[in-house]
Amino acid sequence: MRTGLRTGLRSTVGIAALLGATLLTGCSEDLGERLAERAVEEQFGEGAQVDIDADGVRIEDGEGNSYVSGTGLPVDFPDDIPLVDGRVLSGVAVDDREARGWSVNVEVDDDAQAAFDAAVLLLVEAGFKEQAGLPAGVLSAQLVNRTWSVVLAVYADPSAQTATVGYTVGDSAR
């Protein structure tokens, strides 16, 4: 019995196969992509579709669940969640029968506290309410509105004098 995308993505074997095959791209990009796609499709079973290219990875398990990862903002990222100005380092979208969500990391040319304050202010101005600060040691907060729950976490890179603002977004009703 197959267990769906969420459990499948947690599978060490599937992820290891994907990463290992992708590393083969030094020999042949097409060969590495095909091997990685085949390994993941076998992990998820019949009906799974995998596409790996320079833009990222897209996996559909054949049961209506999908996982998309890349170096840009996911195309279906909610328009009503404002992001700080900066360079999107990575974006992930997960959509399955139980939940949907996104994870986006934005690099900014600012210190961590200023980046955190700007991110919180943008969300508050968009109608979000701060629910809770998260564990000490990381600048973080959870903000919600009627539709979305956003967890912010900001990390500094003192050597580059930048900070990365991480957004984890999910349905607030779930």
Spell out the blueprint of helices and strands:
Layout: H1 4-10, H2 12-23, H3 29-44, E1 49-53, E2 56-60, E3 66-70, E4 87-95, E5 100-108, H4 112-125, E6 129-133, E7 139-144, E8 148-157, E9 162-171
Antiparallel strand pairs: 1-2, 2-3, 3-4, 4-5, 5-9, 6-7, 7-8, 8-9
Helix pairs in contact: 2-3
Q: What is the 3D form?
A: globular
User: Which structural class fits the helix and strand makeup?
Assistant: alpha+beta
Averaging pLDDT over every residue, what do you get?
79
The residue ranges in which pLDDT falls below 50 over 5 or more consecutive positions are: 1-28
Across the major sheet, the strand order is 1-2-3-4-5-9-8-7-6
Number of helices: 4
The separation of the N and C termini measures: 26 Å
Short structural summary:
By secondary structure, the protein is an alpha+beta fold. The protein has helices at 4-10, 12-23, 29-44, 112-125; strands at residues 49-53, 56-60, 66-70, 87-95, 100-108, 129-133, 139-144, 148-157, 162-171.
